[in-house]
Amino acid sequence: MKKRLFFLMVLLTVFFSFQATGLASELMDKFAIRITVIENGIIHEWEYDNPDKFEFETGNVIKRGKEAEKEVQAMISLIQLREDTKVEFMVKQLKENGYKDIERLDIRMINGEGKLFTWVWNKD
Asked: What DSSP designation does 28 have?
């Protein structure tokens, strides 16, 4: 009886752990993400370090923790950041969602295997 109860508890734990949002599980397999957007001379930065360090900076405003986590997740979702995402697509997404005068996009991502991915776009 105890073994069955234990087994059931393990199954439920595994089941509910997979119910987390897709974005959160995607972040867990990334070691670090740095997204920098320069628009009209203003630098906007979104940073993530596994497992739970988030930072968002725009101009002189800096957010950390849960407040920054929302900003970071929103940006990753907006540009649909994946290892195979094209930089032109990300720039298009940014332009259509409030960054009309983007001058530069610079993204660095290290996946769970330690592999570095880099995307850079300049207006000129």
From this structure: H
Is 65 part of any domain?
A: yes
pLDDT reading at 14 higher than 70: no
By CB neighbour count within 10 A (0-12 exposed, 13-18 middle, 19+ buried), where does 24 fall? exposed
Please give the order of strands across the beta sheet that includes 102-111. Answer: 61-64, 53-58, 42-49, 30-39, 102-111, 116-122
Whether 1 is in a domain gets the answer no
Assess contact for 99 and 110: CB atoms under 8 A.
no
Residue 117 belongs to what domain range?
A: 21-122
pLDDT in tens, 21-46: 444 445 656 799 999 999 999 999 99
Number of folded domains in the chain? 1
